Amino acid sequence: MMWVSIALVVVGNIVYQLGQRSIPRDANPVVATLAAYLIAFAVTLGTIPFLARGVAFGSAWQKLDGSTILVGFGIVAVELGFLLVYRAGWAISTAPLLANAIVAVVLLGIGAVAFKEPITVARAAGIVLCLAGLWLVARPSSA
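Above: the chain sequence. Below: its structure as tokens.
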């Protein structure tokens, strides 16, 4: 399940970035985001027979807490952010890489402080590589 789940994230991100990059420039960002959420809602409902069969939704809702609110705000920020990133002229080949590398570096620190996740030598090397990658991606191209 580990590889299936990461494959779902990868495929979902590719579809997501292609979709975001293709939204017409004259479409209102808020309306485009709302439409995407209506479609996401319908798709989520369609997963119920496969991923939530036999779930008692009443008690399942009661298990949610404030973290769900954070996820909701985060999702909207990502959706609107990437749409505006592309409208600002960022390339599809660099914007997600730059954003995700920054997120990885920040989350490594948050993971260590808030969740007591160890920063190993390999993770520290990963930070260095992410920062090197950020420098390579963000610098002006000479060609």
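Residues 93-143 form one domain.
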